[in-house]
User: What shape does this take?
Amino acid sequence: MSSHREAPEISKDPVADSSDLYAFVSPDDPDTVTIIANYVPLQIPASGPNFFEFGDDVLYEIHIDANGDARPDITYQFRFRTELRNDKTFLYNTGQIKSLDDENWNRRQFYSVTKVDSHGKSTVLANKLPCPPCNVGKISIPDYDKLAADAVHKLKSREIVFAGQRADAFFVDLGAIFDLGTLRPFQDKHLVGSQLFNYAGKAVNATDKTNVHSIAIQIPLDMVRRDGKKRVRAKDAGAVIGVWTSASRRQVEVRGDKGAGDVVVGPQVQVSRLGNPLFNEVIVPMAQKDKFNSLPPSEDKRFAEFVATPELGALLPVLYPGLFDNLAEFNKTKEPRADLLAILLTGIPDGIIDGFQNNTGTLQADMLRLNTAIPPAEKENAFGVVGGDLAGFPNGRRIADDVVSISIKAVAGATLPLVNKDFKADAASAAVEQGLSIKNVSAKLLKKFPYLPVPFDGFSNPS
Assistant: This one.
């Protein structure tokens, strides 16, 4: 749900679909920032003989804005190339894969990393870095952890990179939420659910035991801050960066005839992008979702009206009668939701929350904003800033952050008193949540880069 199938056209093109974006100060190296961009969502582990992979015809990019103009000051580009070793077999591997160059591994992927600065100057940082294989099963790959570790590459330019399959650590009860906005822990309070249930339900993680393809990069903080400083204060404007990811394809593709190769020409056309989780998913109307995916963040003022008066904010009092009466009364005033506009489009200014700001200025843009001067939390709270943990979403996004519940709480009015002292949040806005956590992901996060869990293997997780 975070952005797994958020728009009609990109849902038909999963290889180019940006499904999740994470950005956080690295717990294993607090002098760096880790950015993870996931693509190719909802992979079934048992998917042979044609296992999932990055697209050779897709340009994958991670963008970093250091000065608040919603234009990239740094872009990291990732391009992939697939090589087939044996054109006489249908098999992905013809024996056990014990290394990244094992002759038994038939279909391998490599990638290059290019850095583009704010002036458009490109520098190739690495060529032909190997990806790890997909996790076929314990028989084919006896030590997957080692292969994945070998696929972590430290570049001479100081970045650390990884690209390959990982377990999807995003957790969401898709089946309930898109069944008329039902939250299973509150199903007996739902307008229709109250006629079907007299008890609270237990949420189900619909994305559990699925995989994704991840591009992860760990960058020294002085390389992403606007002034190149190693040390800044949390209240300094230069501490905040904006991050988004995108995928692009060439403008024209001509299918080859009679076995000839396809021809791809023309400029790159952006087909997917992602900043804040759920923005395109639940804020942008369906008629404009594909347009959103084609635009840069600097054009997001055209979507501000949907943030100011979110459709979900109007639905909650209807779907859960009596729980959001104060929100319903506020909705009648037709005042714009200044709290949501700040959280999603400008960042939260200094002075609203003690010791915190991630404001990038007045320009409205959907970017994941991270205050790089706020250190990792000693003990994380899954509700992030709403739960008193300033190192969590919407201050960047950590893997274990419950962004679905945080977003629901905010839309329900929990954050509105921060900017409107006359508004009293409904008690339900603090209590409402989807009822899931990172514990509902059947794979453990790593304690070091690239953090996302080892992918589920096809042998142990049949469809």
